[in-house]
Design goal:
Low-confidence stretches: none
Strand order of the largest sheet: 5-4-3-9-10-13-11-12
Order of helices and strands: HHEEHHEHEHEEEEHEHHEHEEEHEE
Number of strands: 15
CATH architecture: 3-Layer(aba) Sandwich
CATH class: Alpha Beta
Distance between the termini: 27 Å
CATH superfamily: Vaccinia Virus protein VP39
Largest sheet: 8 strands, mixed
Number of domains: 1
Radius of gyration: 18 Å
Shape: globular
Strand content: 15-25%
Length: 290
């Protein structure tokens, strides 16, 4: 609880009204104990996310407006109506809902774990976004086939290493290139708990296409379980003309990379990206706008 309080009080979107943030925290703590089943919490631009006890992504958005303010604001400001957004490792759908519901983008939302997929679809249905968001119950890798996934770690589920004693589940996998065909996304969010290098190796055609402007990729060292490093991710992206960057959501400018963050924003065609983010509309949050 102390760690959570620190996160909430230090969050950039709560600086002007920390009391409001604490009020949302205590409202949730009471509601989660009194009400059975999931609770729909307000999100971006009149959308909602279902939350149950333990769903840190959904409750984090409720406490702070945007749980990952830099990355989520970048997606909101970069994307336009009818752009294609590829959400890989969608979990319950925070990015899917803000892109499809907040911007009006078309989203391909990939989530391999069946129970998590059920939560994702529930959020898509809650917001009436079935015509905007396509939910794909597969994994992504550099091969087409079947891989062994953990299924009891909530947002930390991942492809199990060879020889793992964990039971897990078998999940069909495909590649990014086969999944999207010629419908190349403007933005990719990639969060697959260390398997990012394999996913990128299966996206050679998409990464080569200039229609892809940026990617938000988890780079927190989890790739070591498969023998990869975050530098391997950077080398692949830089080989396709992307550069590491960061984003100031308040001035709406691309900035120098921030090595302290668990995600990295890779950009290409900086001028077009800067034009888009500067001209994007404001979006309404539970604690203001951005």
């Amino acid at each position: 609880m102390i760690r959570l309080l620190r996160f909430i009080l230090r969050h950039p979107l709560n600086r002007s009204n920390r009391l409001g943030a604490l009020t949302r925290l205590f409202r949730w703590q009471i509601a989660a104990r009194l009400m059975r089943g999931p609770i729909a919490l307000p999100f971006v631009d009149g959308t909602f996310l279902f939350a149950s006890k333990g769903m840190s992504a959904a409750t984090g958005n409720w406490y702070c407006g945007l749980y990952e303010v830099v990355e989520m604001a970048f997606a909101l400001h970069l994307l336009r109506k009818d752009d294609h957004f590829l959400d890989i490792g969608a979990n319950i759908g925070s990015y899917t809902i803000l892109a499809a519901g907040g911007v009006g983008a078309r989203v391909t939302s990939v989530e391999p774990i069946p129970q998590t997929m059920a939560n994702l679809k529930r959020n898509v249905d809650l917001n009436g976004l079935g015509d905007r968001a396509t939910c794909v119950g597969k994994g992504l890798s550099n091969v087409v086939g079947v891989l062994h996934f953990s299924d009891s770690l909530d947002a930390m589920n991942h492809i199990l290493e060879p020889g793992s004693r964990e039971v897990g589940i078998q999940v069909p996998v495909t590649t990014v290139d086969q999944l999207v065909n010629d419908d190349v996304p403007v933005l990719i969010k990639l969060d697959v708990e260390g398997h990012e290098v394999a996913v990128l190796k299966g996206a050679q055609r998409v990464l080569s296409d200039p229609r892809l402007l940026a990617a938000i990729i988890e780079t927190n060292g989890n790739g070591v379980r498969y023998g990869w490093s975050d530098d391997d991710v950077a080398r692949i992206m830089e080989g396709y003309g992307f550069e590491r960057s960061w984003y100031d959501p308040f001035s709406r400018t691309l900035t120098a990379p921030d090595a302290t963050q668990e995600n990295t924003i890779f950009v290409r065609n900086r001028e077009e990206i800067q034009r888009r983010v500067k001209s994007a509309q404001k979006h309404t949050l539970v604690n203001g706008s951005i």
